[in-house]
Amino acid sequence: MTELAINATDQDIAADLCEQVRSAYAERTPLRIVAGDTRAFYGRPVEGKALNIAAHSGIVSYDPVELVVTARAGTRLSALNAALAEHHQMLAFEPPIFSDASTIGGAVATGLSGPRRPWAGAARDFVLGTRIITQEGKLLRFGGEVMKNVAGYDLSRLMVGAQGTLGVLADISFKVLPTPTASHSLRLAMGLEDALSELSKLGRQPLPITAAAWHAGELFIRLEGGASSVNATKERLGGEALPADFWQQLRDHQHGFFTLGEGQALWRLSLPPHTPPLALDIAEDDIFYDWGGSQRWVKTHLDADSLRLACQAAGGHATCYTPHTKGGAESPFTPLNSVVEKYHRNLKTELDAHGIFNPGRLYAAF
Questions:
Q1: What phi and psi, each to the nearest 5 degrees, are found at residue 4?
Q2: Which fold has domain 256-326?
Q3: So what CATH class is 182-251?
Q4: Which ranges of the sequence are coiled-coil (predicted)?
Q5: Dihedrals φ, ψ of 186, to 5°?
Q6: How far apart are CA 239 and CA 340, in angstroms?
Q7: Which of the listed residues 10, 37, 114, 257 has the most CB atoms within 10 Å of its CB?
Q8: In the CATH scheme, what architecture does the domain 14-178 have?
Q9: Taking a C-beta distance cutoff of 8 angstroms, is the pair 324, 6 a contact?
Q10: What is the spatial distance between Cα 143 and Cα 130, in angstroms, rounded to a whole number?
Q11: Are 11 and 76 in contact (CB under 8 A)?
């Protein structure tokens, strides 16, 4: 395996981070884990001493032949994507980049994925292994650089979406994929019900669709793969060509839809495939259907209970993306039922006995 140090900002400060965690553990000092701090809107605010991992950056190893890359958590997403692009490869889960300061550690900690997620997989599906700083300040490796079955806790994947509440991500190894040889995005004028029906039909066919969304009377589709397959599907579907940066703007919340009105909050509704429109008192233009309709961005003044009850009835859940200090929900994530909460508490106690890692980030009680 060829190992390449290809990041000009390559720096390993794991030893210093371990010492800071050891000190916090001994003194019972809460830590607020931060790097680019571009995802602070996602979750509850954390009170604690800052543990800044931004300087722990650089690509540790990259083997384009084996489709495996390992990067330190403070590595900027823009740098990692650029390094992969040189070899015509990519992070298939399309992590959002909310600013140039966005890091790969933050992408994994929040577990957010972009428009390709239903067709390629989520962030945790591409994490092969990690190095994690534990509550005692030990730097331990979990997983590796190959896909395999795991007995017991798969701690590497537990860290995805845990928002730093179980430990500090130091290094992460990913499976990467080749970038498609051809790509075409299109738009079709179509009402919502017709669009959802059309997406259901297309989803049952072997077509090279890697993104699908609907908003304000238009259906948006991205085709990626071999040139012949993309061209044939493009001719079949027709429509108007869509600017290539449309999906990046949607992924990174740069699309004009994400401009909130006075008193509005942004919510993400996660629903089963082919769920019809929910009975909510929300203007159609204030809902953006992504992931073929399974992920719905909503701008609304409605309260959390109303949204969550409607989602729960459809088998889904709702998450608030606007901090409560700016009009969002006090509890951004769906409250846990008693059984699930018990397991969350047990896991938190096992891995963070003194509650030093991002306390209250996910839920107020732990």
A1: -125, 125
A2: Alpha-Beta Plaits (3.30.70)
A3: alpha beta
A4: none
A5: -140, 160
A6: 46
A7: 114
A8: 2-Layer Sandwich (3.30)
A9: no
A10: 6
A11: no
Length of the chain as a residue count: 366
CA–CA distance, 170 with 155 (Å, rounded to integer): 13
Token pair recorded at residue 175? 């499976």
Structure confidence by residue, pLDDT tens digits, 172-227: 999 999 999 999 999 999 999 999 999 999 999 999 999 999 999 999 999 999 99
CATH 3.30.465.10 spans which residues of the chain? 14-178
In the chain, which residues fall in CATH 3.30.70? 182-251, 256-326
pLDDT, one tens digit per residue, over 271-296 is 999 999 999 999 999 999 999 999 99
Type of residue at 359 = P
Long-range contact set of residues 11-17: C-beta below 8 Å, sequence gap at least 24: 11/55, 11/56, 11/57, 11/58, 11/72, 12/56, 12/58, 12/72, 13/53, 13/55, 13/56, 14/56, 14/131, 14/133, 14/139, 14/170, 17/51, 17/53, 17/56, 17/133, 17/168, 17/170
